[in-house]
Amino acid sequence: MLSKARFKYVKSLQIKKYREAEQRFTVEGAKSVLELLQSDFHTELLIGTTEFFSRSDSALTSFPGERMEVKSDVLASLGSFKTNDTVLAVARMKGNEIFTVSADEFALVLDDIRDPGNLGTIIRIADWYGITKIIASNESTDFYNPKTLHASMGSFTRVSVFYTALTGYLPTITLPVWGACMEGEDVHQVQWGNGGLLVIGNEAHGISGDVMQHLTHRVTIPRYGKAESLNAAIATAILCDNLRR
Fold this sequence. Notes:
six-stranded parallel sheet; Alpha/beta knot; alpha/beta; 245 residues; CATH 3.30.1330.30; four-stranded mixed sheet; 2 domains
């Protein structure tokens, strides 16, 4: 039975300060939870319906942690999404560990991406195009935000995000640093080479002036109509598609 204390604890993990204090986060929905169970994240608790626990997925049947069965209405009130009527997982957060970007791979750099839906979608896009590393500014939204994880559709288990001060990190990089700008080289004409960093700026203001100083190349998506701008995640998808051509 799910006690009031346990309910309160799990519910509190929707808030960043409690996630950080407990070093735990929640994942909602059958698809994302099953991907979580197959990843290198340590899952501690599954709270789900009888129907979910009756599934024969190997990742579920071999799960060694705690399981709690609840009714779907309890599950919906426990998580962030009222449409979740299958399962919610509690897992341990990973440390904010720096990684090396090699000369033959591409990584994304996110400069003050504030919308968790955008971050989750960008993680999903990176996963689609085989990009496994993202460097995010300290001001960017939280990787473990439930909306971020939900928008990533499980891709958060395959893409690592490292948070840092970009103005301290970028000067240490010897790889090409491409920036998505309103003015720059036409993305359809760019010779990307074998690897480098691609910087995506803030949804409203683009790449900050301090980060702009560390770009080695500026690239733009040509506009043929009258729209003022593109959503950050959509722009990321277009750029990633072109760099993989």
